[in-house]
């Protein structure tokens, strides 16, 4: 699909009855200040991304870069903010829908829509002007590309994901608890990872698996890994998705974005949200001094002196795997997390449908 790019400033906003509303930000400025100078990129405009966009328009963020290669389908309509049945009929891009949502809420926001993939080097470079990047993407490869952007240009990067699916059966079911035995068992939750300039990157936080990045970038390798018994998440595989979970995760992301701009609480590094028990767990980690993505041989802080990432393989061909047959990720070691009771972020074994 060709990349369709809208001009950053767009058409002049309508005036008259819907003209400038001087005090529209009064209630939030009292707590968080103004955001008119801020430019935020939202990459991935599905269930979570569209919620984030809607909130940022209400907040009065000055500039929005909206990135997604996809068009609206009928199954998106249960969660895609601003999408209408007519958008399905005319195969509207998600970028078009998100930009329309922003303009409807707040014509003063400068919006630029890019209907392309963050894995396209041309698109990747167009995201550079954003001071904050919200990544609401499926899969490991887009997370790798966004992490590279954040590390190379010292940007704040918030990675979000939602997980929803059947929960494993308890080993010892309680036969006396009729209510529990009739309940639908679901794993429902998500995560928020916050990458700040100078801090641990998404790979330090085990937020993606380099070997699965390779598998996603190389369709032939992905097929070979499936044939060999590896689980390779397929972003095209339909996964359950529901609007309230997206709202929860998007809410945490927007709250932390405000926290980055105007510190109002201890910063979050990695937040696990479990909607099945109404609980959250905050995790922390240090930078990995040998991290492949932000360590000594990385493009950390090089800005334009290093180019866009090559979408060729990022690691050597996979050879080692553990006894269970799962690929080993040298950066996936939950023991590095400082919260002792939690397993740490999970890679490659859950749907991340955003
Ligand atoms: Zn790192």
Description:
The protein is an alpha/beta fold and 354 residues long. The protein has one domain: NAD(P)-binding Rossmann-like Domain (Rossmann fold), CATH 3.40.50.720. The chain is 27% helix and 15% strand. It is built from 10 helices and 9 strands. It has helices spanning 26-32, 47-59, 85-89, 94-105, 121-126, 141-153, 178-182, 210-217, 219-227, 243-261, and strands at 4-5, 39-43, 63-67, 110-115, 132-135, 156-166, 186-195, 270-274, 279-283. It has a 9-stranded mixed beta sheet, sandwiched between helices. α2 (47-59) runs parallel beside α4 (94-105), α2 (47-59) crosses α10 and α8 crosses α9 (219-227). The longest helix is centred in the last third of the chain and has 19 residues, at 243-261. It is globular and about 60 Å long. The model is unreliable at 11-19 and 317-353 (pLDDT under 50). The chain binds zinc ion. Zinc ion binds at residues 200-201, 203-204, 287-288, 291, 293-294.
Number of domains: 1
The percent range for helix content is 25-40%
Secondary-structure content class: alpha/beta
CATH topology: Rossmann fold
The DSSP helix count reads 10
**Order of strands side by side in the largest beta sheet?**
1-4-3-2-5-6-7-8-9
Keywords:
354 residues; Rossmann fold; 9 strands; 27% helix; binds zinc ion
Describe the SSE topology.
Elements: E1 4-5, H1 26-32, E2 39-43, H2 47-59, E3 63-67, H3 85-89, H4 94-105, E4 110-115, H5 121-126, E5 132-135, H6 141-153, E6 156-166, H7 178-182, E7 186-195, H8 210-217, H9 219-227, H10 243-261, E8 270-274, E9 279-283
Parallel strand pairs: 2-3, 2-5, 3-4, 5-6
Antiparallel strand pairs: 1-4, 6-7, 7-8, 8-9
Helix pairs in contact: 2-4, 2-10, 8-9
Zinc ion (ZN) binds next to loops.
